[in-house]
Amino acid sequence: MSPITNLTGHLLQAHIFTARSLELAEILNQIVVAAKFVSHKTNRAGLTDILGDAGKTNVQQEEVQKLDEYAHDVFVRLLKQSPYVKAVGSEEEPEMIVFNEVYHDQAQYIVHLDPLDGSSNIDVNVSVGTNFVIFHKQSLGQKLLKSDYLQPGKNAVCAGYVVYGSSTMLVYSTGKGVHGFTLDPNIGEFLLSHENMTLPEKSEIYSLNESYQPKWDKNFADFVAKMKTNQDISGKPKTARYIGSLVADFHRNLLKGGIFLYPADKKHPNGKLRLLYEGIPLAFLIKAAGGYASDGKRDVLKIVPADLHQRIPFFVGNRPDVELVEQLLGNKH
Ligand code: P6P
Known about the structure:
The protein is of the alpha+beta class. The protein contains 8 helices and 17 strands. The chain folds into 2 domains: 7-194, Fructose-1,6-Bisphosphatase, subunit A, domain 1 (Fructose-1,6-Bisphosphatase, Chain A, domain 1); 205-328, D-Maltodextrin-Binding Protein, domain 2, CATH 3.40.190.
């Protein structure tokens, strides 16, 4: 029987039929539509004027690619259509985007997203992705407080990513397993293709940018050396795989087993990846798939964000590997 379950159907079947699950299903439906728009654009990147940079830098002081801008615009406009979304935090905007139309008066959800992660890879036809995480407002009333949008990942109600690769997949979790949907371009729908994705016990891959080796902490350099010999915990050397596109690297390791590492170094004293819309979504997913994510000291899901674009060192994958990094970095809380 060919796949026929879409994301809304899957979510509502998995959850007791409550108002909140209906609200969440509606928000996810807006994300699904946005992902279709972005997938359509990325699949034609060479044929439309969407390659290259947009001639501006974002709050991260990074070159904004045209596709970054397009993806940000599409996701924000579609999420604004939802009467349940109060505000959006985006990599592309310094501050929160708060929706104050009348139909948002009862809105109780916050969505943080990286609309297009790894966009510099678009020009060379390498997979890119979108990360998102959804929180429920903690404060009562209509006003959005900092405590509403700077929540630790353990409070999240849903997280997921879209990987725009050889096929476009949307992977999500509400904490009850991790489930993958593949976009069927002929039907124009994401259909359930990978139910209950779990991290393989065997950790066979390590993913990091080894060009930064001269800047690494010595203990971290020792850990990387260990992974290349039989001395690591799995008893056999890992193989190196690094695409330089977070979502694509994470997705492969989720399916195959492995650890992704982006440590702090002299160039990135707080790490490069952003806590709210890169670390937290993937930490939420890896936990639901049986793995673990740390900043080298503690569970990423327990970190209370200090600001919207806070960076962290990020280690995610099989728990024994990630815990070994914590021990080696010697700062375990
Ligand atoms: P580096 C892409 O720019 C990104 O934010 C992530 O997608 C990716 O994992 C990382 O940066 C790659 O960084 O320093 O290895 O180029």
